Amino acid sequence: MELEVDIEDPWPAGEWEALAERVGEAAAQIAPELDNARLSASVVFTSDEEIHALNREWRQRDKPTNVLSFPMLEREELLTLSPEGPPVLLGDIALAHETCAREAGDKGIPLEQHAAHLLVHGLLHLAGHDHETSAEDAETMEALEVKALAVMGVADPYGDRD
Fold it and tell me: What mean pLDDT is reported for the chain?
């Protein structure tokens, strides 16, 4: 999967593009449907103001949030996508700096670690996973997030698991 990364103000200088690439590689290891060279996705590191506008326009939610995902494929399309053929847009992910930074501070973790978690979360949404459909789907998605983050050496964001 190829990621196109755009970093906007107010995100501070950092290795955000490299982080997104590492997240993409980890996600592809735990969700093999993402391990397809035909796939591309865009990731934008942006502001709460921009996320608020996107959330209001596309989700009818008049507030900022930490991450938004805009899938372009249905899960069944992704699961049956041949590795041969032209490029296919998986979707778009946007992260809001101020909300992400506040949440990372509240959790006492580095912004990079929280951004990695949110990017994994966003990629799983693009892959058709949805934590809002049922408690079982939420547990499945969280378990995948934990596995992908573990591949990166990032601690379980949900706490200790057996």
Answer: 95
Residue 129 marked ligand-binding: no
Distance CA 70, CA 41 (A): 10
Give mean pLDDT, residues 51-59.
Answer: 97
Query: Are residues 54 and 75 in contact, defined by beta-carbon separation less than 8 angstroms?
Result: no
Q: What angle do CA 5, 48, 26 make, to 5 degrees?
A: 40
- Which residue from 44, 41, 34 is spatially nearest to 68, judged by alpha carbons? 44
Q: Which domains does the chain have, with CATH numbers?
A: 2-151 (3.40.390.30)
List the structure tokens of 79: 């699961």
Q: Quick check: helix, strand or coil at residue 160?
A: coil
pTM: 0.95
Neighbours of 157 (CB within 10 A): 18
- Which DSSP string corresponds to 71-101? E-S-HHHHHT--SSSS-EEEEEEEEEHHHHH
Please give the backbone phi and psi of residue 69, each rounded to the nearest 5 degrees, phi first: -125, 140
| pLDDT above 90 coverage of the chain, percent | 93
Residue 97, annotated as binding a ligand: no
The label of the residue with tokens 């999967």 reads 1
